[in-house]
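Re: the request from the purification team.
They wanted to know what the chain is likely to look like in 3D before they choose a buffer screen. I agreed to run a prediction and write the result into the notebook, where they can find it.
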Amino acid sequence: MHAITVEQAPRPQTLAAVVNALGNDAFETETLRFLNSTSGAEHYCVYRVRDGHPKFLGGASIRGQHAMRHHKSEKRWPARSFVELHAADEAARGSRNAVMLHDDLDHVADPTLRSALEHFEIVDRVMVCGRAVDDLYALSVMRSRDAGQFDERELTGLADNADLLIAACAKHAALHWDRGKAIAHFASVAVIEGNLRESDWGLSERELQVSSRILYGISAYGISIDLGLGEETIATYRKRLYARLRIGGRHELLQRYLSLL
């Protein structure tokens, strides 16, 4: 047996920085630097489609790391983004490798999306899409009027690194985006109550108050003191809550809450 040396084209130095930033706050900035060095990209967003539901995960912009973030409410997102992501999902299902979809921005019908693109003067956009386990990950990579459209060399640079970018985003999601956001949703009783009010659980006001305090880890005695009610009354609301949700206890309540996030 003898060793075989395979010569590979050198990759930008920022690739190492992307790998080193997995799981921490620097990942989004380092990914933007990498995309900029390979394709001149100025903005990007990362989405995931899980069980048919698109979700914005993160992104960065030369105008500031958080400039391209969408509103937290999915109802406020441009509808065309959902259509594109489902189309990307179908394209990625038929390929073992990441795929790229090149947008035609001259025919954007959705007014919200068109307004966002005009605000950042976006003239070209590429969707880099690929699957990790059962999820689709999609990078929306954009350039403004100042930079102009992607040329053939820059598109090739994106294509050459597409699989690596998808794998990195999937890994970072597991290490950072998902964990960090889940922790934030348990920051206070008020935060939990706010999330439950936006759910379709159909809870009464007292059931909402009791469930949010259970999820926050307050004991029945503590809830009774906090709400000024007797422990037996708290127990009654807890039973009603579990019956309404058809669950058996706090562990299942926690699982149901996590499914909302």
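For the purification team: The chain has two domains: 14-182, 185-260.
Please add any questions underneath this entry.
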